[in-house]
Design a protein that fits this description.
heterodimer, A: alpha/beta, Peroxisomal Thiolase, Chain A, domain 1, 2 domains, nine-stranded mixed sheet, two-stranded antiparallel ribbon, 33% helix, globular, B: mainly beta, three-stranded antiparallel sheet, binds zinc ion
Amino acid sequence: MGLRGSTAIIGAYDTKVGKIPDRSATALCVEAALGAIADAGLKLSDVDGLVTCNSMAQPYMYHAEAVAEYLGIRPRYCATAAAGGGATFTVLYQAALAIDAGICDTVVIAMADSLRSGLSREAAMIMQSSTGHAQYETPYGATVPGYYALIAQAYLHAYGAKPEHFASVAVSGRQHACLNPTAEMQKPINIEDVLASRLIADPLRLLDCSLVSDGGAAVVLTRADRASHQPHKPVYLLGAGEGRGHEHISQVASLIHSSAAQSGERAYAMARLKPADIDFAQVYDCFTPVVLIEMEDLGFCGNGEAGDFFLRGDGGPGGRLPINTHGGLLSHSHPGNPGSMFALTESVQQLRGGQGARQVKDANVGLVHAQGGILSSHCTVILGTEVAL
Amino acid sequence: MTLAKPLPPVDAQSRPYWEACNQGRLTLQRCDGCGHVQHYRRIVCTHCGTDKLTDVDASGAGTVRSFTVIRRAVSSAFDANVPYVVALIELAEGPTVMSNLIESPLEAIHIGAPVQLMFERRSEDINVPQFKLREGKS
Ligand SMILES: [Zn+2]
């Protein structure tokens, strides 16, 4: 029968985000795990799988094992994602495969970090920029915004796009964040605000860049036949797919297209759905131009047309296809590796329903997409309610 | 405390590349089997999979594939250089390399601009390939 609909998310939990100096990165991860287990109506002893991601502020050689020890559990399935972004959904995909193969029944995926309180600003910047190739890139002093600015500049050049198109992504994300009381940024912004914010790495400005936060989130994934007796409506995993191009940006084949095209195609095929069937999407928004490229590669917009999509408000609250309904990495939070977990927990909440002002109407199918590296490794996941099975 | 600019951690496969840089030459690898030219130096041709590869000197000519002006340095090591340009250079031979664009007026830099190779000495052993806009053309 395959992976489609064979597993479901039955628990989801976000810690507070922003500046949380009174919780270590490990404690945030544990808080998220316990919160998601309680949300699922389960006990710690019901969990036989644990997946985490490593922390930059408080790394362990064996992170998931350290968190299992902290929790006092002895999971049958235990894995640590070494990185964030797309790796977050890759480990969700792999956990679903492990459950489907009968290796375990109930997996907690918990990720947290303290980029804001646990590291100095310079240490955080150096650590993040170490994504560059140590021999052929790092000696040139690029920052992470700098690496992505190379993509941004190429996008402007290829399509004759304008900085307003990038800005419209930030404005759209902020509109969603303003409807989400848990988002870090609550003050509305407009295009002019983005264009007036200071240049970080041309053409990217401060408000084109995501946040630096503390925080974490977790979900509980279980076999579909165990999902129906829990407190919340199950959210089924309908499709997943991965795609990879380069690792280092100087080895990239195209600066304006990504392997989101392949990850999306594979996820749609497994889910037996197409872009037009998606009710909302959470699209990795570490920097505004990344969203435009991913929207085009995932089939939501034609090439060079995603900027106009956001300028028209099509991705905003009540728009044709709401994008990043929690506020995204730009306006909700970005604690580094765990960043895309909030896109996942938000998708679960949207599919459960009842999210007040930010609830997407008739939401039955949601797509989450993330990438890691510098537009390098992509993973797309499609989730749905029972109606979509 | 001001950090020093990072030096490449040279390994057994990259040593000939960095030694050539130290003599003012930028080398690429050409596959003896299929003629594919690649950067960086590897033990396999990424096109045909053979391990028969020869180091060849790049001409030093290239064009700007993309670029950015870094306004906030990655670390204190680069503070004195702000604003500085990080670029992807498409070499005449095909491969892309990352570089700074130095000694080049910011307003003259654009995608497609022709550039030429130069070097920046960072230590006795490390001479980092750099590029600047080719004069008289834009
Ligand atoms: Zn070859």
